[in-house]
Each structure stands twice: as structure tokens, then as C-alpha cells.
Write a structure and sequence with these properties.
The protein is mainly alpha-helical. The chain is built from 13 helices and no strands. Among the domains are: about 90 residues, Serine Threonine Protein Phosphatase 5, Tetratricopeptide repeat, CATH 1.25.40.10; about 110 residues, Alpha Horseshoe (Serine Threonine Protein Phosphatase 5, Tetratricopeptide repeat), CATH 1.25.40.10. It is elongated, with a radius of gyration of 37 Å.
Length: about 280
Amino acid sequence: MGNVKNMIFVKNYSWIIIKLILIPFIIISCSSKNIVKTVEKNDMEIYNNALSLSLDGNHEKAAIEFDNLNLNYPYSKLSSKAQIMTAYSLYENNDLKKAIINLQSFLEMNPSGEFSEYAQYLLAMCYYIQIPNQERDPSLSKKVINYFKILISKYPDGKYAKDAKLKIQYINNILASNELSIGVFYLRKNSPLSAIKRFKFVIENYKNTKIIPETLYRLCEALLMIGLEEEAKQSKALLIYNFPQNRWSELSKELFNSNINVIENKTMITSLKNYIKTIFD
């Protein structure tokens, strides 16, 4: 009976030993399987996945994926491209503040790299799309113009130079229109001197904008309001000479025939003429 018990004990003990030997191998085997399942994607796989998300319009997730490539593979050949694509995805997702930060950081590190021209253009565009059609505060518009001018200066023959020039022209038209509107407001409020300042500013600073014909006409109006007929004629002559087919030129021809109240006091007229000279000199 004792021998049987000893045999059972030996058998059980042996089984325990076998278990202890096998368990580590089982654990290692399971761990190996898990490692295979959680192997990270390489840089190309991450980039292609992010690009697919971007093409599908899922720009938020695309930005995260492109950013993951930069974090996990900072020395990859795709790193610079992924940084630009991160900014582009943020731009498309209307996350403009983050896009601007990314682009400024990129340009600091890559002032003249392969993607620097596009980065400069995209940076300007981040501000450009924030401009409302009728902006009263010109500070943002001037900042956009500055960024586009930097782009044109650095890459005068680049692929974005033409578009940058067109956008500068568009912004200038908005700024000129706003200045003209303020001048017309002063004109209607019977403050021709304040109006003249605005019109002069438009003529000097926005020469190539579409608003110049009307500005010259309004200037003619303002000058006539304070009795400066000769100066008004000069404004009219400039208008007709430079824009002969424009409707404001046609309207200006009738302006001197209309009944406009002018100042009759010669002393007042002389002082106003001197004042106008200070404005136009």
C-alpha cells in the first residue's frame, strides 16, 4: 500500500515539474503571437494610410496619422512631406491655428527646402481664408499681403507666384473699397475735407484697383463742394483720360452742369486751397 502511495506521489510530483517547465514556453509562445499582432507599421504604410484618409476627406484623422509618422520616424525620408501634409490636413479641417503653428515651425527648420515654397503659400492661405469680403479692420489683410509678398520675393518664378499676385490684387480691391466707402460716408455727412483725405489715400496706395474711377469722381464731387473748381477739373481730366469708357467718366461730364452749392467766401476758398495743397504735396 505504501508503495502505491509513493508511486502516486512521484507521478503527481513529476507532472508538477513538467508543468513548471512547460509554462514559460507557453507564455513565450503566446507573447510571440501578441508581438506579431502589435508590430507597428513602417513609415511608408503610415504615410499611405494617412494619404488614403486625406483623399477620403477624413482630414482630422489624416492629420493625426501624418503626425504619427513624424513622431515615430523623425529621420524618415517621408518626414518632411508628412509635416507638410499634417499642416495641409489641419488647413482642410479648418484647424487654422494649429496649421499656422506647424507651418511656421517647418519654415524655421526648412527655410529653403523641397517643400518650403508650398509651406509659405499654405501659410499665407491660412490667413487669406479668414478675410471677410468686407473687412473694416485692415490688419489681417495687410498681414496676408505681406506673406504673399514674401512668397513672390523668394520664388518670383514659382508655381504659386501668379496666384499670390491675383490674391494681393483682390485684397487691395477690398481695402480700397472700404476706404472709398468711408470717404463717401464723410461726403454724405457734409465733411468734404475728411472725404478728400480718404480719396487721396486710395489714389496713392491702390492705383491699380478697380475702384480708382469712382474715387476720382468722388474727389471731384468733394472739391466742388468746397469751391475748388480748378482742382475738381483736374480730377475730372485724370478720370476721363485714364478711363474714357468708364461710366464714372460719363457721369463726371454732367457734374459741372449740376447745381452744386459752393463756398463764395474768397478768404475761405484760399485757406482751403492751401489746405488741399498740404494734402496733395
